[in-house]
Amino acid sequence: MRAMLICLLLVPLLGAMIGTSMPSAKASRRWALGVSLLTAALAGALVALFDFGHAQRFQFDCEPEMFMIDEIGFSVHLAIDSISLWLIVLTAFLTPLAIAASWESIAKRQTEYYVWMLVLLFAMLGVFAARDLLLFYVFFELTLIPMFFIIGIWGGAQRQYAALKFFLFTFSASVLTFAGILYVGMYAAPGSQPSMDLDTVIQHAQYGLTPHQQLWVLLAMLAGFAVKIPLFPVHTWLPLAHTEAPTAGSVILAGVLLKLGTYGMLRIALPIGMPNAIVYLAPALGVLCLVGIIYGALVAWVQKDIKKLVAYSSVSHLGFCVLGLVAMNVVGVQGSVLYMINHGLSTGALFLVVGMIYDRYHTRDIDQLSGLARRMPILAFFLVLFTLSSIGLPGLNGFVSEFLTILGAFTSTNLGIGFGAVAALGIILGAVYMLHMVACVLFGPLKTPMDDGASGHGHAEHAGDGRPGDLGGREIAILVPLAVAVVLLGVMPNIILRTIEAPVSRLLRPSGADDAIIRPVSGHAAGVERETEFVVRGREE
Amino acid sequence: MNFLHALVPEVALVMAACVLFLLGATRSLLARRASPWIAMAALAFVGGRMMAPSGDDLPSSIAATLMSPAFTVFIKTLTVLVAMLLTLLHWPTDGSGSRTSSLELGQESPEYFGLMLLSVAGVLLVAGANDLILLFLGIELASLPTYVMVSISRPIAVAQEAAVKYFFLGAFSAALTLLGLTFIFGATGATNLTGISNAVASAELHAVFSGWLLIGGVLVILGLAFKLAAFPLHFYALDVYTGAATPMTAFLSFIPKITGFTALIRVLNALGAPVAHEIPQVYVSLLWVMAVATMTIGNTLGLMQHNIKRMMACSSIAHSGYMLVGVTAAFTLTDGMYSENGISGVLFYLVAYGVMNVGVFAVLMMLPARPDPFTNDGKIAPATSAETLADIAGAGRRDPGLGMIMAICCLSLIGIPLTVGFMGKVLLARPALEVSYIGLVIIMVLNAAVSAGYYLRIISAMFLKEPPPDTGLEASSETHAVAVGTVCAPSHMRTAPLMFAGVLSAGACICLGSLVPAMTAVRSAARESFYIQPSTPGIVKPMPPQRSAPSAIPRR
């Protein structure tokens, strides 16, 4: 039980090490898929063994003494509550799909590629499992290295520039986070040993720092997380990285890596700035989110490159996610956590479909593609499904989380009606640019770089004559699990919502409040929970 | 136990050096082949002696001149271990026993290794010195051989130019240091460091001689800046590092640096007796400015380079800046106390810098240079291995092992987590935060981000760039091919000693990241570096200042 998380981390790490000495490219990709599936199975076992009755409690706690460094208060402390659990499940779910999607599209230096994928998996899981601030940062930065190589070696034409920009942008910002982490860590226990333990640090930040110090620490933390998310003015690395990355890289980047920023904000920045600083900054952050939502949507609208369009849609969507976080109420934060998972699913799926189109036509230009539904009905089905999920069609997953984040903004004491109204406008824009893309690419006269638009119809049945055909079995097998998840979370969001209630309300309470309050739910907290449940149920009906 | 007994490590090294000089006079092939083995054996002997606990303390008569607390032992052990790694880099790989891919010693091979041992002996002297005269002798003993080594490391003009430049500026900085030491002696009447700190602690001196003392301290700091390659005497580094043969560059970027930091810590320690006075704010402010300027200048210059050896020179400057952050924090008084965390941070970073630096140079030596049509008539200069980004383009694809070593070392130099460089930065930032130098820490981490700019160019050259079409050596003239072909063919270059050094340092870069014992050693060393314990202010009795010259010279 206790060793579960260690196993979860060791499997991809050892898998990567063994993967370096695979005899052939085929063997290495099979090995990587096997290892990632084993990791996914372990994540499934975590869900099965997790005690949802006490979801706010950190479970599978494990802190091996051999890795403790008292000098700086560092220890390898792993534990998860249900928020981390679901994000781990998301990571373990997406990675095998991403690896399977690279099966044929990655043609050179395959062994290296799959090793980096497994290292990336290791680092991402580590971020979500870490309960030590420095350990969190270690994993947070470690994700940069595999991603740097994945973009830089297997990316598109501008891959080297994109990889450097990705690395330098995120690294430059996160060194400030590093400074902030050291600052709170070193002051965490005045007069005694420094401690990097997350609970100690948060408690100290809330009670031990002056409001002024707290504000600066919060700003330092936000610097790194905002670039990773990415929030509006610092999003410029994202479109380039997404466009240049190989399909699997984009899937992981959008699906999980961006969530590291929001997760860090939720887990570290919010609690550290809790009573004062975050409330002070919330309106400013909210405005940035709104600008991101609207600006991202408008820029996405005019993109000619489908991948870039989806990338900008991420900027817009992550705005909703952060808006829910800074609302600082249970509904908003809950919606935001759900948003992280939903965005990972639907945007990841969109990137996969776009990658499949690119594999066939070697272009992602909206002007060069048209009427694909005629030739590839199955692909069209999936593209429409994931588009609708991304737009937030009721019944699919995106709707619930978008609704909750906006509701959070409306009812928040930090934000208010204005924020909710503008964000709601963003949903409309989202529908506009996504549907615009789908209409252009899927419908209308058939036009691909190979058909030159000359013949409008009648070619769909000649899939075998050298023209690319519809999705194959492997591709369908990749997309079906995502489609199932998208529908499932649309119909039954309570699978996740109900289990993250308790940890979210624990997060929103000042820490150091007696543990006794947390376990048997106090009157106030119970009221909050009932309210949420009502909201959720009300919408399902 | 007598005086010589305490000096066994130094004496052993000097004796081995003398043997090597004698062998060099024979001009025989056997002597050339034996010389690296002799050097290695001498270093191994000293290293073994350092590792073994001696148990008994030095008698007080010796302790007046020589010290052997944990700090000294730590510096000596570290120096000897890194010197062994550096010897591996110099290991001759051809039959004549005088040449590697990027080193051509000709007949002077034994002398070269002898000079190397002398230089190491100098560092050991500095580490043990408790007397200004011995300290200065040690610094000079560590420095003078390096001037000659740069010059004979390879027979091309740039190396001679580098040697001359290095020598003149080195002499200038030595004069500066000596002038400073003279002022200190004049102000305190003592050359013994303990005596100086006692004199500083006594109140009557303070009124009269504090001005002299201040000038002396500032001059010493500035003079030592040359050894550290720190602002304002950093500018020589780029040319000298580029001109010297690659293994010599590795030597230059570590041995003078550890000499400088040891001496700096020693002198500042004596000047800042925490009992009665704090270190004059001038020193701390000066160190603060130097730290900021050094790391910023180093990293900014690094961004502009295409030659990796120049980049590593900039990196060397920048890392001195990081370590100066630790020194600055260490000598800032908070609550009437010095924190040993500053010193322990610097010591740990020295270990870290030692290993990660050697790794980079080892890889550079294992990669061939490519003929550049624009310089040198399209030929490769003799004794030249990979030096520019174009030389290493795509090398990580051809040889993933070398690529990994280079990548790990570069990531460690940036300070990416799970490497020793990261831990080093944490341990340097911690003391700075303890004394509330938040600005300094922010500048340091931002500098780490800037430095990522050029280290990543090395990594991306190795992994992301395609290797250029193989031009080979057939274009160059026949004689040239004979001269260079044996040296530069990759199969000959990837030799066991180099590979061993590379793997060892890359391994250390990852493992040390979580290695607790190293930190414990560093900590105990740092604690004892303050030989006037800050926590026990009552123990040190201020001695009457000794003005008369005879009594100021310690018993020897």
Q: Give the overall silhouette of chain B.
A: globular
Structural class from helices and strands of chain A? mainly alpha
Per DSSP E runs of 2 or more residues, the count of β-strands of chain B stands at 2
Number of helices of chain A: 22
How helix-rich are the residues of chain B, as a percent range? Answer: over 70%
Main interface: chain pair and counts: A-B, 36 and 34 residues
- End-to-end separation of chain A in angstroms reads 39 Å
Contiguous runs where pLDDT drops below 50 for at least 5 residues of chain A: 453-464, 514-541
Number of domains of chain B: 1
Total beta strands of chain A: 2
> For the residues shown, what is the average pLDDT of chain A?
84
Number of helices of chain B: 24
Helix content of chain A: over 70%
Based on CA inertia axes, which overall geometry of chain A fits? globular
- What is the CA–CA distance across the termini of chain B? 14 Å
Question: How would you state the average pLDDT of chain B, rounded?
Answer: 79
Q: Strands of the biggest beta sheet of chain B: in what spatial order?
A: 1-2
Sheet with most strands: strand arrangement of chain A: 1-2
Strand proportion of chain A, as a percent range, falls in under 5%
Order of helices and strands of chain B: HHHHHEEHHHHHHHHHHHHHHHHHHH
Q: Beta-strand percentage of chain B?
A: under 5%
